[in-house]
Amino acid sequence: MSNPSLPLPSSDRADVAASLREALLAADFTADGLLELLGAPAYAALARSETVPALRATRGDGALAALVRLFLLQETVPHARVADVLPVDALLESRWLAGQGDELRATVDVRPYGGPDGEDWFIVSDLGCAVGGAGGIGSHDEGVVLGVGGASTTLAGITVRTPVDSALDLGTGSGIQALHAAQHATRVTATDLNPRALEFTRLTLALSGAPEADLREGSLFEPVGEETYDLIVSNPPFVISPGARLTYRDGGMGGDDLCRSLVQEAGERLNDGGYAHFLANWQHVDGEEWQDRLRSWVPRGCDAWIVQREVQDITQYAELWLRDAGDHRQDPAAYAQRYEAWLDEFEARGTRAVGFGWITLRKSGAAEPTVTVEEWPHPVEQPLGETVREFFDRQEYLRTHDDAALLAGHFKLADEVMQEQVGLPGAEDPEHVVLRQHRGMRRATKVDTVGAGFAGVCDGSLSAGRILDAIAQLVGEDPVLLRDRTPAQIRLLVEQGFLLPVRA
User: Fold this and answer.
1) Omega before 383 cis (within 30°)?
2) In terms of CB atoms within 10 Å, which of 36, 145, 198, 320 comes out highest?
3) What region does 440 belong to: left with phi over 0, alpha with psi -120 to 50, or beta?
4) Which element (helix H / strand E) includes 55?
5) What is the mean pLDDT of the segment spanning 446-454?
């Protein structure tokens, strides 16, 4: 269904995009409107690239049903049915629509997308490519531009959303990250190797009523030269593959070199205090710890938080992306040949598995930056941007406070932290105590009874040292010894977000 050789809608007619937006909103062609019309099962099926339930739900004569068939399901719709809803003549002239006799069809996929504060946005992408990643779009087109998939929403969710002067969306695709950035950045620059993607970004921004971005064609950081930014975001073509077959997903460099290059070069493009957020794949190589591999990517002067969310062995990984391109539905011999090529590539590099996750940098300028590399495959609460910002703030606090300063500090227990006591039924004392978060990363950590008691009374009013002195008196322990052995546990609770530093 996608065809990168087709002419795109004109991006020069802002008035047409504005009138189309007004018509779509008037017909309730929004994320909430779709959910109400289609119902949850059919709406969820669309995210899996399954259209049959939605086709069944749009058999009626309503305006919204017509728009869903036209822009989401890529069905032809009678001219007369659309003319009452849309400015058809202007859309035909600007190539948003094309005519086929008495029927009309959309030239691009237009999909409602709900913004973080309830905004009604629209993502424009190639036909049949609204859902990317492992959704199985089955496209072999080199220049195809995808819409919003799980990776896109993950990146948008983890990005720190403080107001900034300048933001860079590197590898913009259909423009979802640039659209988010436009809400809190004065200036947004968006780049892509594929010029078609830049046009789609322009359309996405215009149809969503967002400010225009500075669009630049080129690879990686090349289009921006020596310019620096307060925020950098990138959902790059991170797939580790034998060759750059598909621009939208394959990096074109050996192994995980593209992701490594992006991360390493980001340090010089960040302003002091700025953040860079990346999604990435990385190799697990024989004879090397994957954590060490990623630590070596972190540029000088940057704190980093790297979270591995998933690991696949090389056969699972190859199968995932072969299916993504629809190769499993093609000639079996060609499929086997491509599968062999992936395994040959991994064998040559000593790769036994591939990790996926997110990488966040903060330009701290610290002489001894904090680099945290962890595996966390468990559910988290999105959006995580504020959690990410608070994580780096706490790292800065811990770096600048020795044990004496820590004991003089004041802390409060984070919201929605619960205590669980684990032990045999009827036992007088628990075997151990678990603190569990119900927000953000939703972590759980074991603490001893002193740690649990300390956390439980932290409300910001007393210093850590005074609380420990009271606990020592209560349990009959030497307060000096307790002050000596407890800071390490306090540091862990602060690092993981169970305790938050407060000003006295």
Assistant:
1) yes
2) 145
3) left
4) helix 52-57
5) 93
